[in-house]
Amino acid sequence: MADPAPVIHTLMEDFFIAERFRSDGIVAAVDVTHAEGQLSQHLEAAEQIRHG
User: Fold this and answer.
1) In sequence order, which residues have a C-beta less than 8 Å from that of residue 15 and are 6 or more positions away?
2) Do 2 and 44 form a contact (C-beta atoms < 8 A)?
C-alpha cells in the first residue's frame, strides 16, 4: 500500500507531462480475497478505500 499523492504531484509538476496530459481521476482496486487482512493491518489501505 502506498500513498499516491506524491506520485500524482510529481506528474502534475513535471512540465513535459503537465503540458501534454491531465488527470481525470485515480482508480483503486481491492483484492477481495485479501482485503480483510490488508485493511486491518495497513492504515494506508483503509484510508484509500475510505476516500475512494
Assistant:
1) none
2) yes
Q: Per-residue pLDDT tens for 14-46?
A: 999 989 998 888 887 778 888 888 888 888 777
Q: Which three cell numbers stand for residue 14?
A: 513535471
**Looking at residue 52, what is its pLDDT?**
58
Give the type of residue at 18. Answer: A
How far apart, in whole angstroms, are the C-alpha atoms of residue 42 and residue 44?
5
Q: What does residue 31 show for φ and ψ, rounded to 5 degrees? A: -85, 100
Sign of CA dihedral 30, 34, 38, 39: positive
| Greater model confidence, 34 or 51 | 34
Task: Supply 37's cell numbers.
Answer: 487482512
